[in-house]
């Protein structure tokens, strides 16, 4: 008499267990990678791998150098510590005269009444670099490219010296506490995003990184989105593009609103 096979595929309980395991796996996959992510407002289906990485909380792309190439707009300005030195009285005077062309957008005392950046008290090397990028066509803006086209290196240095010595638009630096937005305070290590305060003041200031406290919110949001899309690419070594590439609209809104919260009174 042939023995009854109680193991293997012929066992009905074994077949049912396999069937239920498949059903549960498919159900968990659909719930975790389709249903739950879809309830988030910023969700967009970008394939199975992207959904898995999103659910796991890790980047879908670990090759951080795969951003759209921006060879035509990458900066060629080399930052030098001499750019950050205080200008002479003569340089400040010449810069004040040149700055008369800048008042319509940046204000009579470097404080904007629109969404143009505040320049009062800005680090001189920041202004020098951006003007050189505009002049060389490395940063786009019809107005700024036209205004900077005929500026000499000395003109640019004088303008930077003038704005740097104006009454500081830099309000009291950010204090490190739990009320700061996460990206400002701790960044996002899994997305290779350093804390904003580690470069832009508050805890530390990286040479060449602009002071952001009190900047117009619209300007900050516009620049972050331009870095994210690759429209703006004059950041050395793609530092800001790497940061902004994975930022959501909500994160850009939070960071921009945070830095704009200390905007000083606008006087003309």
Give the gist of this structure.
This protein is 44% helix and 0% strand.
Question: What key phrases describe this protein's structure?
Answer:
mainly alpha; Cytochrome Bc1 Complex, Chain D, domain 2; 3 domains; 11 helices; Cyt_c-like_dom_sf
Helix/strand layout:
Blueprint: H1 12-38, H2 48-56, H3 89-98, H4 103-106, H5 124-135, H6 142-148, H7 153-165, H8 182-185, H9 217-229, H10 239-244, H11 249-260
Helix pairs in contact: 1-2, 3-7, 5-6, 5-7, 9-11
Q: What number of structural domains do the residues give?
A: 3
Multimerization status: single chain
- Please give the count of helices: 11
At the fourth CATH level, what is the homologous superfamily of the largest domain? Answer: Cytochrome c-like domain
Write the CATH fold name of the largest domain.
Answer: Cytochrome Bc1 Complex, Chain D, domain 2
Q: What is the averaged pLDDT score? A: 82
- What is the CATH architecture descriptor of the largest domain? Orthogonal Bundle
Rg over C-alpha atoms, rounded to the nearest angstrom: 26 Å
Instruction: State the CATH class of the largest domain.
Output: Mainly Alpha
Globular, elongated, flat, extended or rod-shaped: what is the shape?
elongated
- Which series of helices and strands comes N to C? HHHHHHHHHHH
Structural class designation: mainly alpha
- The overall strand count is 0
Percent of residues in helices? 40-55%
């Amino acid at each position: 008499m042939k023995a009854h096979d109680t193991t293997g595929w012929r066992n009905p309980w074994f077949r049912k267990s396999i069937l239920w395991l498949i059903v549960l796996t498919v159900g968990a996959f659909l719930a975790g990678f389709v249903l739950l992510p879809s309830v988030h407002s910023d969700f967009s289906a970008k394939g199975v791998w992207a959904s898995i990485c999103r659910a796991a909380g890790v980047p879908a792309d670990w090759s951080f150098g795969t951003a759209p190439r921006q060879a035509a707009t990458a900066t060629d300005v080399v930052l030098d510590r001499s750019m950050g030195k205080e200008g002479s009285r003569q340089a400040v005077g010449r810069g004040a005269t040149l700055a008369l062309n800048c008042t319509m957008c940046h204000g009579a005392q470097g404080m904007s009444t629109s969404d143009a950046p505040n320049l009062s008290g800005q680090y001189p090397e920041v202004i020098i670099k951006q003007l050189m990028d505009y002049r060389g066509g490395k940063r786009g803006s019809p107005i700024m490219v036209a205004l900077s086209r005929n500026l000499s290196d000395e003109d640019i240095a004088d303008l930077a010296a003038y704005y740097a010595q104006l009454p500081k638009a830099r309000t009291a630096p950010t204090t490190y506490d739990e009320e700061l937005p996460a990206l400002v305070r701790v960044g996002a290590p899994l997305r290779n995003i350093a804390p904003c305060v580690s470069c832009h003041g508050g805890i530390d200031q990286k040479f060449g990184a602009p002071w952001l406290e009190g900047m117009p919110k619209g300007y900050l949001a516009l620049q972050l989105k331009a870095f994210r899309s690759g429209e703006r690419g004059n950041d050395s070594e793609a530092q800001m593009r790497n940061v902004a590439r994975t930022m959501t609209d909500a994160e850009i809104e939070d960071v921009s609103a945070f830095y704009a919260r200390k905007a000083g009174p606008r006087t003309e």
